[in-house]
Amino acid sequence: MKHDIRILSLVFVLLWGLAWSSAGRASAGNAPPEPADEPQSTAETEAEPARGTPDAEQTLRVLHGGAIEEMPMDDYLVGVLRAEMPASFELEALKAQAIAARTYTIHKMKDGPIANHPDADACDDINCCKAYKTADDAAADWGGMALYYEEKLARAVAETDGQVVLYGGEPILAVFFSSANGHTQSAGAVWQSDLPYLQSVSSPEDEELVPNYYSVETFSAEAFRALFLQARPDAELSGSPERWITDVERSGAGFVTTLSVGGVTVRGNELRTILGLRSPSFTVEADEDSLTFRVTGYGHGVGMSQYGANALALQGRTAAEILEHYFTGTRVDGYTTDTEMH
Ligand SMILES: [Zn+2]
After folding, report:
1. Cα-to-centroid distance, 133 and ligand 1 (Å)
2. Residue ranges per structural domain of the chain
3. How far is the CA of 65 from the centre of ligand 1 (A)?
4. pTM of the model
5. Residue 140: is its pLDDT beyond 60?
6. What angle do CA 273, 311, 255 make, to 5 degrees?
7. Got the DSSP string for 181-230?
8. Contact at 8 Å (CB) between 147 and 276?
9. If you measure from the C-alpha of residue 115 to the centroid of ligand 1, how many angstroms do you get, rounded to a whole number?
């Protein structure tokens, strides 16, 4: 008899425990916290498991063609996609581009009014914000493919609704460029400051996938001198061009980080801008009357490579996998924006 009671109470304890734990799972709000054994688990992801603020609920003031137009985030992102990435690219690459552009825009808006245009959240100047193209302008370029491409870009935005690239729970400076030389470049090697998520990583595109992957630019001594002195009048550019460029420093990824031109130290990316080279990944040869630059890839080399994203998509990688590859230590997730942003 004693024995039966012991078994009954054991069964009762087991049943009660089972009921308690399933009730706990069903209503996460009342359940005691689970042990923190999931590496990605943060307070934010538990509160916002699926997605953040929908694009349709975020209104942007976009400065385009000199006028400010209000539009929801999704319409703006389709306009950015039309201008920033070939619509013929793989859907997962276009989705990665949509998430990167959304992240870039939210990151920029979080810093408050933008000095160049305090009354607009974004503009169409690529030196300030992102390029932007209307449906009519894109249709003129796309011809008979226009309807198909419009639907494809709208799908790339809709399927990533509210998704953002996060580092430490915050939207990142999600920069991108066209094509790399096999690796991307860390921010610190190109610009003034480094960021933990903008580091050098491999990038799979090559001359098979990228038009004009290799380019050559030759400057006469006079043309080079005129261009460079306009930007840096303190340079000493006399005598043979063979002695003008010295101390070429490269990153491990092969990009020129700094070099001396006529005794003036410049960053590789600065010389790229001055000369209109396609990338800071270059070699230079000089003779008595000219300088020749051999360049690989296109763009500054920091963040997501667009052709690399397309190559990874062709290998079957998802948009989130592509972004988490190019932005070190990040994850793609929903993000709740402050609706009182402006
Ligand atoms: Zn701008």
Report:
1. 14
2. 55-174+303-334, 178-300
3. 12
4. 0.81
5. yes
6. 30
7. SSB-B-HHHHSSS--TTS---B----TTTSTT-EEEEEEEHHHHHHHHHH
8. no
9. 9
